[in-house]
TrEMBL record:
GO terms for biological process: negative regulation of cell division. Keywords: ATP-binding, Nucleotide-binding. GO terms for molecular function: ATP binding; ATP hydrolysis activity. It comes from Mangrovibacillus cuniculi. Transmembrane segments: none annotated. The keyword ATP-binding applies. It holds the Pfam family ParA. This is MinD/ParA family protein. GO terms for cellular component: cytoplasmic side of plasma membrane; cytosol.
């Protein structure tokens, strides 16, 4: 069975099982280069391998979608190809390691709104069809906030903010959270501090951000955890393999598994029901079609 037929079969199975929902989490940062793509990828691997979840990564860094470089595999088609040449979504979804699915935003998409309403509608209809097979869709976003990024970002039910302990990254993370909070007040925000040199350094940075957000934005954010500076992660990037697969016994792999565990548990604490697919696509339709 080829990949496209497998996907179709899974969609049919999910529809008959009435598993009609998944959680959508956008991974964002203020400053660029703080580790969004690596964290998205390794959380996805961990959700899939340690927690048996079906995960789709959508690489929505349209300026320079490059998450596939961390996977060591190149997708044949991207979301831009779907829009531009009418390629079907199932062709653009690449089956990665351990059943992980990946779709690239493609490069050079400067304005999604340049595409006709019909094309955008077809894209959303098709995406919606496929969402039924996933437990999680993780959106790897570009840094900062363009109109296009915001159109996709606004559809995610949950937001995962990445920072490092550096003051510049923290200040930008705060600005991003302020910007997002003013628009999407009620969504849960999670925080990960990446590249800390010690647990203490990471904890202090997170505490500071959590209390600043609480004081000035009156918003509770959930500190998910700390990812330490890791030579294994750097090595894995060079080898184009997710660190969690390359070094399954390393501390960093345990860290990602714990973070993934917190994310799965969080749904119950937060009453995030597995019904958010509907609102994800309702919002996507609104943002991409009603303009
Ligand atoms: N925990 C870590 N330990 C060591 N190096 C890291 C760690 N996290 C990220 N890096 C380094 O930082 C680089 C950038 O990471 P990544 O591409 O994930 O960031 P990004 O936020 O997605 O960047 P962009 O904003 O450009 O999309 C990696 O290639 C890696 O070299
Ligand atoms: Mg990135």
């Amino acid at each position: 069975m080829d990949q496209a037929s497998k996907l179709r079969a899974q969609v049919q199975r999910s529809e008959t099982n009435n598993q009609s929902s998944c959680r959508t989490i956008a991974v964002v940062s203020g400053k660029g280069g703080v580790g969004k793509s690596n964290i998205t990828l390794n959380l996805a691997v961990s959700l899939a391998t340690n927690h048996q979840k079906k995960v789709l990564i959508l690489d929505l860094d349209f300026g320079m979608s490059n998450l596939h470089l961390l996977l060591g595999k190149s997708p044949n088609y991207s979301l831009v190809d779907c829009l531009q040449y009418g390629i079907s979504i199932e062709k653009a979804i690449m089956e990665g390691l351990n059943g992980l699915h990946y779709m690239s935003g493609g490069n050079g998409l400067t304005d999604i709104f340049e595409f006709s309403l019909d094309m955008r509608k077809r894209l959303i209809d098709e995406l919606e069809n496929f969402a039924y097979i996933y437990d999680f869709i993780l959106l790897d976003m570009g840094a900062g906030a363009t109109e296009q990024t915001m159109a996709f970002l606004s559809t995610a039910e949950e937001l995962l903010v990445i920072t490092t302990p550096e003051p510049t990254a923290m200040t930008d993370a705060y600005s991003m959270m302020k910007f997002l909070h003013l628009r999407y007040e009620n969504r849960p925000f999670y925080l990960i501090c990446n590249r800390a040199f010690s647990v203490n350094e990471g904890k202090e940075a997170m505490d500071r951000l959590v209390s600043t957000v609480k004081q000035f934005l009156k918003k509770d954010i959930l500190p998910l955890g700390i990812v330490l500076e890791s030579t294994q992660l750097r090595q894995a990037v060079i080898n184009q393999e997710p660190v969690t697969l390359k070094y399954p016994k390393d501390e960093i792999t345990r860290t990602f598994s714990q973070l993934a565990e917190k994310i799965t548990v969080r749904s119950f604490e937060n009453n995030i029901e597995r019904s958010s697919t509907l609102s994800f696509f309702q919002k996507l339709r609104k943002r991409l079609l009603e303009r």
